[in-house]
Amino acid sequence: MKILKLRKDRLDFFASVVQQFGEVHAPVEVDGGYAFRRLSRWSEARLNYPRTILPPKKYFLPQRETLFRFVPEKGYVPSAEGLDTRIILFGMHACDIYSLNILDMVFGGAYPDPYYQARRKHIVIIGIDCIPDKHCFCRSMRADFVDHGFDLFFYDIGDYYLTMVGTALGDDMVLATGPLFEQPAEADVDEYKRRSSNKRAAFQLEVEIRDLPEIFEMEYQSGIWDELGEKCLSCGSCSMVCPTCYCYDVADSADLGTRDGARMRIWDSCLFSTHALVAGGENFRHSRASRIKFRFYHKQRGFVAEYGRPSCVGCGRCVAACPVKIDIVEVLERLRGVQHAVSH
Ligand code: SF4
Ligand code: SF4
To answer: Which terminus of the chain, N or C, has fewer Cβ atoms within 10 Å?
Structure first.
């Protein structure tokens, strides 16, 4: 991997040059939080942010999208809406890039999803390093560092950003800026290592995940699930904000007064009461306890069995979003036997 450095005070110029590669989207302040939005000017970008409310998965798997339209004279007309828009996501954190690498396994596996694949191909990713806050446990989930899945990645080393070039496109962006990037000196490497070790020490949360699937196996009948079911409101917020949750529903919408319509794909949540409802009225996960239990088992046991790692990157969004303060770290610790009262 090519490693270069960029003076921090030249980042604005770099951002102006990369506009020729596509629409620049970055975190901006919204309603007391942060969200990835298209920038109208670079000064709106807030690269020093803890986490965005919704993860960048909204660009790859939109909350609501048309799969195809049905028109009597034409039959099925596939939708290409936004599939080839070149977007540059500037300022993604390592855990969010890691979550895309996880979604790649799901949407690129045995049944590749053409909509996801097309967006993934057209969206450029420029990552930036971050400092963990009280909700972050990405290090425990091995997602505090990424070695692929980005075009460029910036590490703050004081007056410079140490820059990892991840793809040929990333290299093209570097070359398009002329002599803006320089070779790092030995002192830059030392500074990178010093900051990397400070970051490791800054994590306030730690979760041991090594034998977690086995612990889940043994705790299937634990009273924790009923306790959580009593508290959970089935609002689905934890799934909506989760960068690795990918459940969706498919529904047809007819245009009134015509014979035209569209097949839509819409985010769904395994916490919703209708998620496991099937024709005939049977509901396989009728109780809230069974639904929240399913979410935990899918992420920490089922996904490990299928893909070799949990489908959680430790971003802390579900903890920040839950209205009744159900905290994944507390739940995992309690299952392991670490004494914790579930927060009230
Ligand atoms: S389960 Fe929670 S902490 Fe893990 S990736 Fe999803 S939102 Fe982030
Ligand atoms: S955010 Fe909290 S209350 Fe809402 S579904 Fe998730 S765990 Fe339940």
So the answer is: C
Q: 244: Cβ below 6 Å to ligand 1?
A: yes
The domains of the chain are located at: 2-66+77-202, 212-336
Ligand nearest to the CA of 238: 2
* Cα-Cα end-to-end distance for the chain: 47
Amino acid at 58: K
Question: pLDDT (tens digit, 9 = 90+) per residue, 8-37?
Answer: 999 999 999 999 999 999 999 998 999 999
Which of ligand 1's atoms lies nearest the C-alpha of 95? Answer: 5
Residue nearest to atom 8 of ligand 2 (CA): 232
Angle between helix 224-231 and helix 328-336 axes, rounded to 10 deg: 160
Q: Which helix (H) or strand (E) holds 128?
A: strand 123-128
Give the pTM. Answer: 0.95
Which helix (DSSP H) or strand (DSSP E) does residue 18 occupy?
helix 11-18
Tokens representing 50? Answer: 């803890």
Pick the residue whose CA is nearest to atom 4 on ligand 1: 312
Instruction: List Cβ neighbours of 69 (8 Å cut-off, separation of 6 or more).
Output: 76, 77, 79, 260, 261, 262, 263
